[in-house]
Amino acid sequence: MTATHTSRPARGTPLTTPFSVVDEITRHCLDPHEPETVHIEVHLPTAPDPTRLRAAFLEALRRHPRILMREAPGPWYRRRYQWELTPAPDTDAVVSFPEPGPDALPLARARALAQAPPLSLSPPIRLEAIGNVLVLVINHTALDGPACLRILATAAELYGGRDNSPATVAAPERPEVHHQQPAPSPGLAPVARVAPGTPPPGGDGNGLLVADLPVPRRPREAPYTVNDQLMVATARMIAEWNLEHGGQRRPMRITMPVDDRPRGMDMPIGNGTRLVEVPYSPEELKLETPDLLRLTAERTRALKALLRPQLGHGATLLTAPVVPVAVRAALTRQLRRAAAPWTSTTLLSNIGRVPYPLDFGDEVGRADAVWFSAPARMPRGLTVTTASTNGRLHLALRWSGALLGPQDGVHLQELFEKHLNSTAEKGRSS
């Protein structure tokens, strides 16, 4: 939610703010078979005290009041969706403590993928504490992962009394682009899709696999970043998967979120990332690994430096409040179906080093692993999300049940790890 204008209501009525472009497009395309959720999973050395955790989390919500919002009701002919800001949560269920047991965490993960917090209740998030693991579930129509990680950092500070400020508060600087490798243009050719695997019967919802890997090494003076290594590993993972499963050789595009927001207490809360697309031709993916890394680095630098709306100029035009929102919703869904063959192949969301200590004090300790996962709706059907803490890479593969099954996820992880290792250089890690 990047819109910052808040209307001034009459006395006694709630504050409202319009949906951003990202919020509205997502709201138009909701599918009950594939809920639009983001899941964040934080592993701590020791289980926090339930009463103190609840108090700290609810106070953190008050410290970031833009998260206390619900979708305002309105007639079909309204020109905009509106968020309605509330002084407190609408429900006590915003924090829950499921019964412990060997299946408690898998069941919490399954709920995170299948049960989106409703937009009609403030806030559209849910925190479950399963022993020493916190599972935060986010309705992605309203909020993204980095914004809610900021909430968790505030809750950690309130719980343990330790400073949880980020390593850097300023927004990241866009790098200078001295030269740029021309990107291949797929023209009207359809984009590569992830080839179908063995989906389970029914095929509803999303599946998830999480893994803990070493952060790949690279020379300190390397012209590429770990994010570029992850990009190459993702592209080659899909290329090899498709080759094994009879997929056609087509141009590939990988969506990459770019987040320019500061990480301090003033971080705008909502959906604040820009989406850019990194293209590859089939021939480029056959380059020697050092050459492909350099090419990827040039493209990602150029894309990060590019000033453009969050979803591009077309989405901005599509969400202009000229006609009733119900009319725009129908048009958006039709365009989404028509554009499916040209939708990007997959999404790689790299949080990078988790910017906050997530330190809950002496009794609980600091987070030693943090996983994120992004929605994996068709036609993409697969997302790759990574974060790192303490020199470890926390990988989440999430897929549509209409496309892949659990064993497919295991094999994709093996391919990803193989191709990520191929990008690693001997020597000291940066």
- Net shape: globular
Major sheet: size, sense and barrel closure?
Answer: 6 strands, mixed
The string of secondary-structure elements, in order, is EHEHEEEHEEHEHEEHHHEEEEH
- Main-sheet strand order equals 8-14-13-11-9-10
Structural class: alpha+beta
Any descriptors?
430 residues, alpha+beta, Chloramphenicol Acetyltransferase, six-stranded mixed beta sheet, globular
Describe what this molecule looks like in 3D:
- It is globular, with a radius of gyration of 21 Å.
- The protein has one domain: Nonribosomal peptide synthetase, condensation domain (Chloramphenicol Acetyltransferase, 2-Layer Sandwich).
- Strand 5, helix 3 and strand 6 form a beta-alpha-beta unit.
- The protein has helices at residues 21-28, 50-63, 104-114, 145-160, 226-244, 289-305, 313-318, 325-338, 406-423, and strands spanning 16-18, 37-43, 69-71, 82-85, 95-96, 125-130, 133-139, 206-214, 252-258, 274-280, 346-353, 369-373, 382-389, 392-400.
- 29% of the residues lie in helices and 20% in strands.
- It is of the alpha+beta class.
- Helix 2 packs across helix 4 (145-160).
